[in-house]
């Protein structure tokens, strides 16, 4: 069923499948995070993720999507999103954003985390903490009766209060039978606008936060997005479903 704004409402049986998908994906991410060390290439990380996906008997949501070559998007330091796995080697002091999705019983799940490698600077640690906390702020607004932009506004307010900037060029999204469903969910905006939220809506909420300017650019591979000023960026993402009791995180 769709709302008047074209947002699909998931039925209880669909939410059950999405819940199972999220549990599998979060297990994969926990295992992947624990394996990240200095000296690995971004391709090594992708191959590790691919092995875990096969181990859990699910299908990659990303590999082959619009021609993307990996099962993960791996973005290092100034990388924002959609980093193509390759020969870049991560080292102590780097941060690595890993965005990963799976398909389970015909339904998609999607999550992202930014992982510190060894000892990172205090300001970079603060960037990670603020980005993750802004995701919590956004999820907290995903309640029936609120407006979509209440999520966006909560994220932006929190991020800018701490002196960082929110990426404008890439957004969160609905998710379910497709990786990207309506609506788009920006991480900035004024509260009280957009569709009214309702039980059964499932969203992938994903703030991307830069230490410097919010502006980004796409590299010559046609995929990898980096900060325009070369400063670090962090990315955290969860899939959530709106319930009568508020938002439930599916990928935690």
Mind explaining what this structure looks like?
The protein has 252 residues and is of the alpha+beta class. It has four helices and 15 strands. It has helices at residues 12-35, 42-55, 122-140, 148-161; strands at residues 59-60, 72-76, 79-81, 95-104, 107-116, 165-166, 172-174, 181-185, 202-205, 208-210, 216-218, 225-227, 233-235, 238-243, 246-249. It has a five-stranded antiparallel beta sheet. Strands 1, 2, 4 and 5 form a four-stranded antiparallel beta sheet that branches. A three-stranded antiparallel beta sheet has the order 3-12-11, with no helix packed on it.
Tell me the layout of helices and strands.
Layout: H1 12-35, H2 42-55, E1 59-60, E2 72-76, E3 79-81, E4 95-104, E5 107-116, H3 122-140, H4 148-161, E6 165-166, E7 172-174, E8 181-185, E9 202-205, E10 208-210, E11 216-218, E12 225-227, E13 233-235, E14 238-243, E15 246-249
Helix pairs in contact: 1-2, 3-4
């Amino acid at each position: 069923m769709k709302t008047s704004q074209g947002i699909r409402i998931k039925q209880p049986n669909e939410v059950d499948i999405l819940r199972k998908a999220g549990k599998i994906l979060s297990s994969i991410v926990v295992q992947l995070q624990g394996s990240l060390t200095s000296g690995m290439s971004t391709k090594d990380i992708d191959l590790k993720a691919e092995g875990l996906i096969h181990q859990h008997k699910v299908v990659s949501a990303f590999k082959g999507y619009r021609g993307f070559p990996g099962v993960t998007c791996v973005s290092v330091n100034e990388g924002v999103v959609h980093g193509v796995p390759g020969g870049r080697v991560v080292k102590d002091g780097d941060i690595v954003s890993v965005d990963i999705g799976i398909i389970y019983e015909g339904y998609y799940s999607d999550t992202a985390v930014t992982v510190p490698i060894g000892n990172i600077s205090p300001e970079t640690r603060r960037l990670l903490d603020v980005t993750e906390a802004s995701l919590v702020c956004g999820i907290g607004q995903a309640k029936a009766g609120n407006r979509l932009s209440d999520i966006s506004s909560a994220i932006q307010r929190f991020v800018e209060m701490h002196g960082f900037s929110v990426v404008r060029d890439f957004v969160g999204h609905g998710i379910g039978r497709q990786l990207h469903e309506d609506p788009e969910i920006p991480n900035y905006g004024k509260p009280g606008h957009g569709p009214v939220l309702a039980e059964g809506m499932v969203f992938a909420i994903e703030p991307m936060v830069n230490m410097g300017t919010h502006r980004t650019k796409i590299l010559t591979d046609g995929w990898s997005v980096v900060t325009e000023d070369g400063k670090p960026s962090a990315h955290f993402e969860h899939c959530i479903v709106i319930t009568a009791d508020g938002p439930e995180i599916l990928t935690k």
